[in-house]
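User:
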Amino acid sequence: MKTTLKQRVLQFFEIKQLNANSASRLLGIPQRTLNRQVNENGKVGMELVSAILNNFPDISPRWLVLGEGSVTSSHDFEFERMDYAPFYSDLPVSAGHKDAFDPSVERPSGFISMPQWHAEFYFPVLGASMEPEIYSGDIIGVNRLESLNEIDPEKIYMIVTNESRMIKRCHSDENNKELLWCVSPNYPAFTINKKEICALFHVVNRIERL
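Assistant: Predicted structure:
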């Protein structure tokens, strides 16, 4: 029987002989938050998942996120195939988070298999700019756009610059073709110069936080 994410987190605590107090210190997450997520009726957030993977590289991302394979990671990524897309747990998407994304340099934390969506990459989301469509703690699957001319104002995009990775709806400025409007439900719209955009990705899938 496949385990839930919460069950796997509790199994991780047992393997590492951790309680909420010691895990809080090691993972940098408030003890009250940990208790709510793993010992009460709360949902395990991707912040906790990311903290585990970042601090315990021996734990398999595939096992923790998907419940597949063994608990410990072999670091060989032999399971990378066309139906698995890389997941970058340490590259959250949210307005203001620095570090652009270069798939030729970044090493994925693991892989996610949802071939029906044909996503190229998966990222965790932090921040509430796109709620209630995309929540903080969700994971998004994205595909790269080859041209800024492909933008559809009804779709959601991940915009990558040298300073940030953010998710917004987009449309071109009517008076200045060099500007792109970035729109979200919870923050004022703003413009960005298209020359500042390193890459643009269409959000094709959302994995709801558990």
